[in-house]
UniProtKB/TrEMBL annotation:
<keyword id="KW-0630">Potassium</keyword>
<feature type="domain" description="TrmE-type G">
    <location>
        <begin position="223"/>
        <end position="382"/>
    </location>
</feature>
<dbReference type="InterPro" id="IPR005225">
    <property type="entry name" value="Small_GTP-bd"/>
</dbReference>
<keyword id="KW-0342">GTP-binding</keyword>
<dbReference type="GO" id="GO:0003924">
    <property type="term" value="F:GTPase activity"/>
</dbReference>
<dbReference type="InterPro" id="IPR006073">
    <property type="entry name" value="GTP-bd"/>
</dbReference>
<dbReference type="Pfam" id="PF12631">
    <property type="entry name" value="MnmE_helical"/>
</dbReference>
<dbReference type="GO" id="GO:0002098">
    <property type="term" value="P:tRNA wobble uridine modification"/>
</dbReference>
<dbReference type="Pfam" id="PF10396">
    <property type="entry name" value="TrmE_N"/>
</dbReference>
<feature type="binding site">
    <location>
        <position position="237"/>
    </location>
    <ligand>
        <name>Mg(2+)</name>
    </ligand>
</feature>
<feature type="binding site">
    <location>
        <position position="252"/>
    </location>
    <ligand>
        <name>K(+)</name>
    </ligand>
</feature>
<feature type="binding site">
    <location>
        <position position="258"/>
    </location>
    <ligand>
        <name>Mg(2+)</name>
    </ligand>
</feature>
<comment type="similarity">
    <text>Belongs to the TRAFAC class TrmE-Era-EngA-EngB-Septin-like GTPase superfamily. TrmE GTPase family.</text>
</comment>
<dbReference type="InterPro" id="IPR004520">
    <property type="entry name" value="GTPase_MnmE"/>
</dbReference>
<dbReference type="InterPro" id="IPR025867">
    <property type="entry name" value="MnmE_helical"/>
</dbReference>
<keyword id="KW-0378">Hydrolase</keyword>
<feature type="binding site">
    <location>
        <position position="460"/>
    </location>
    <ligand>
        <name>(6S)-5-formyl-5,6,7,8-tetrahydrofolate</name>
    </ligand>
</feature>
Amino acid sequence: MSIHLSGWDDTIVALATPQGIGAIGVIRVSGKNTFSILNELFPSKDLSVQASHTLHVGYLKDGDQVLDEVVLSLFKGPKSYTGEDVIEISCHGSPFIQEQVMAAITKRGARLAKPGEFTQRAFLNGKLDLAQAESVADLIASNTEASRKTALNNMRGGFSSDLKQLREQLIRFSAMIELELDFSQEDVEFADRKELKALIAELNHSTQQLIRSFSLGNVIRNGVQVAIIGKPNAGKSTLLNALLNENRAIVSDIAGTTRDTIEEVININGILFRLVDTAGIREHTSDVIEQIGVEKSLEKMNASDIVLYLFDINDTSADELKVFEKSLQEKNIQYLLVANKIDTAESGKVQAISHFPSAIFISAKSNTGIEILKQALTQKAISGEVNTEATIVTNARHHDALLKLSQSLEEVQSGIDNQIPGDLLALDIRQCLHYLGLITGEITNEDQLDFIFSKFCIGK
């Protein structure tokens, strides 16, 4: 698939490596005039007659001025990332040198690339579909093994392959129904309605699986916010330090030491957990600052994906836990009850708390049970093992289109059941194809593309 938009036949240039001083900087140039521009700056040989996918070492010169000694990587279209002629310039990592090189290139007719424009050109030239192009940004932003593998699988076409199968099957039936319309006076059916009904049921099942995967995909992509809640002196700061394996929060025997929230990130089994250590919650306090801290704690609790309710097992009754557990359940908040100071607990206390299915016993001070708590957090976040080889939806735009696709499939199903005319059935199937096309880019417009690719970094 190739899409042609106006204003996309010029030559662009951008720095493809991060801003700042480094050993090497890479400048990427793409477009129809790439080789003619670089030939003016690289006098040692004619680049246009060199083979694609080769490296060339020499000096870049702007007139008589030597800019830098560089390595040029040549990629002749269409066998390049963008599908156009591309040259990547590996120069020394001085910001001054990089600016001088790009200035020399723009002086010869190239323009600075917009964010994501190289990948946008790859999409427009049929090198990637839109879902694959968006996964490039996800891969760049990945910060865990799970997010890397998921983005890589989608970039290689895992998600697109699933959608392509759905689309091809729908197109086949759509064509058969359209053919029926040409022979409407002869009252013939080229599309077997029973077979179509079975296909729609199968497609709807696949669509529902993709929709359900979004909750996991959202966890993989954005992480999980976890609020550590409890009374003053329950050991919340000590638990945060134990989970991080460092002394991040101040710990003391004075109740109310933590006045504000402390946020840290930890990677557990490839999932990012954003831990929030909150001020101790107690109903009555005369300290104005502490009151503000308690209010912020409740706000964090309500905004979190998971709440760790930490309590001192020695001074918390089962009745208190039931009240707090009920309030969390009413708010539909996922939670774990974490009984701290197990190393000093009486056996009767342990037995009373053991009746709570979500209870976990730890000693934050001596690091007892911390690994069990981490496993429970992971299980609560993803409800099982992350299979990054399977297709996982991580993009909210894709999720929205899949929800609309599911609704359209149900309308097709209803149409078959009610034996509606073929022309109306064909309209419903076209609607399904429309929502599939929104994801992969068969259905799109210039404004939508500009919005999607504007979120990319410049140079990609």
